[in-house]
Write a structure and sequence with these properties.
single chain; alpha/beta; Rossmann fold; 4 domains; four-stranded parallel β-sheet; three-stranded mixed β-sheet; 16 helices; 12 strands
């Protein structure tokens, strides 16, 4: 039965949507709701619900789910509302396919659809449906044209190395060009801390305790810090796609903004964070000095902290095949003793070789390989080489670039020194430092190998003879 024949007040649900809320204040949605409430009052409807999709597009290009829109459809199909109120047809949808669903609500369920500014089309008649679908087709076309214009404009901005919009990038003022030095300084320090071996979780804990916020005003998380540090924007380059996801690409286009760190430093940090051997779990903080740092003397794999034995004593165990087991506390005490000897050595700065290495040859070779890639693409476009030749040449050049990147990153990492090593009294600074900073120093200065127990000592008490600690030698 058509609900319009009922004598009771019709139950109406208001649906409001805005595609882009630049100020994040929801005012656009509020204005739509006010106009719909005025319409409901004029027509004598009883508003039983208000549903909002804020900052969500309804165009064919949008992949965002619209939970409020879906709830509106469910209420109408279940017979819980008689009327759908919206500011305009385009606020309901810009998709012809979805407009067919709305027509189905009218024809099969007797639901009315009213708008504040788009007028009314009788969707129960063929002519009314034809007019409504025609307008929906034009709404969809306009949405797609807008998307194409925005995409083209962003591509032109990218080609010129300009800022492409979006939320203010951390480290820069609004507009993405001028540095916000207080935030840029933080990015530089965090970048160097990562190169020196500090963990992202340790850094996040420190900055949140200090009260620092993201550009969106939220506390930092490991994921957010990683995303900010690994932005190619920090070294002055544009990129396509999200870092760490399939399709991510650093372009050859330099931005017009000032970089926060130099390219070599950024690539060294990026190499550390994307190293496959690096543990990526964020489920807990680093608690043990040597877990993941000490090495097994049998297979060369890493040792991990674990509880074992009858009394669940903490030990280091070979992660690969449980080749070796050794007491954690006494091992760490021995390693720290060796480290303190090194930190007290007046030749420490000489051992670290802090002077910047000459990487000009590697940089020039990398530029040459990038130029080769461009030449291969031109030759293919001009028909001078086949697709198979292009793939083979590209693979060779890409592999060489990756090799050079690795060399450059390791050179930068070798010269990195933490705040502990730069302090006037490294030994005291080490004792006061958080565990992730201590681990970074151990990994930077020592190679600790745990060897099997000699047969005559199997089952006997802990022995430091099994712990092989090597240290850097003064540079020549």
């Amino acid at each position: 039965m058509d609900v319009r024949s009922s004598t009771r007040p019709l139950r109406a649900v208001i649906y409001a949507r805005i595609s882009r809320d630049a100020q994040a204040d929801g005012l656009g949605v509020e204005r739509q709701i006010e106009d719909c409430q005025t319409l409901a009052q004029r027509l004598g409807y009883n508003v039983v619900g208000v549903l909002e999709d804020n900052d969500i597009s309804a165009s064919t290009r949008s992949k965002k789910n619209r939970p409020a829109y879906n709830e509106m459809l469910a209420l109408a199909r279940a017979g819980q509302v008689d009327v759908i109120l919206a500011y305009s047809n385009s606020r309901l949808t810009r998709r012809v396919r979805e407009y067919l669903d709305l027509i189905d609500l009218v024809v099969k369920h007797g639901v009315l659809i009213k708008t504040a500014v788009s007028g009314e089309h009788d969707l129960n008649t063929a002519d009314g449906r034809a007019v409504a679908l025609t307008l929906a087709t034009w709404d969809q076309a306009e949405a797609e044209r807008t998307s194409e214009r925005v995409k083209r404009a962003k591509q032109q901005m990218a080609d010129r190395g300009e800022y492409r919009g979006g939320r203010r990038p951390y480290g820069y003022e609004k507009g993405g060009i001028k540095l916000r030095e207080s935030e840029a300084k933080f990015i530089r320090q965090a970048t160097h801390d990562v190169i020196a071996g500090r963990s992202l979780r340790g850094l996040v804990k420190e900055i949140n305790e200090a009260g620092a916020k993201t550009s969106g005003g939220r506390p930092w998380t490991v994921v957010e810090l990683r995303d900010v540090l690994t932005r190619p924007r920090n070294m002055g380059y544009l990129s396509h796609g999200a870092v760490g996801r399939k399709g991510f690409e650093i372009t050859s286009t330099k931005g017009i903004w000032e970089p926060i760190v130099d390219e070599d430093t950024w690539r060294a940090m990026f190499a550390v964070l994307t190293d496959p051997s690096r543990r990526t779990t964020t489920s807990g903080e680093a608690k043990w000095l040597g877990s993941g740092i000490y090495r097994c003397g049998v297979c060369g794999g890493v040792m991990r902290a674990t509880r074992s034995g009858r009394y669940k004593k903490m030990n280091y165990r070979c992660q690969e095949n449980s080749h070796i087991l050794i007491g954690l506390e006494k091992t760490d005490e021995f390693v720290i003793g060796k480290l303190m000897e090194l930190l007290d050595d007046p030749r420490l700065s000489e051992m670290l070789s802090p002077s910047a290495p000459d990487l000009s040859a590697e940089r020039e070779e990398r530029s040459a390989q990038e130029a080769l890639l461009l030449r291969f693409e031109r030759d293919y476009a001009e028909g001078n080489i086949t697709g198979a030749q292009l793939r083979a040449a590209t693979e060779r050049a890409t592999a060489k670039i990756a090799e050079l990147d690795d060399q450059l990153a390791k050179a930068i990492q070798r010269t990195a020194s933490s705040a502990i090593l730069q302090s006037a009294n490294p030994g005291e600074a080490f004792k006061r430092a958080p565990i992730d900073s201590q681990r970074a120093v151990v990994a930077r200065l020592l190679r600790v190998t745990i060897n099997p127990s000699p047969r005559e000592n199997v089952g006997r008490s802990f022995s430091t003879d099994r712990i092989d600690v090597t240290r850097p030698t003064p540079a020549t």
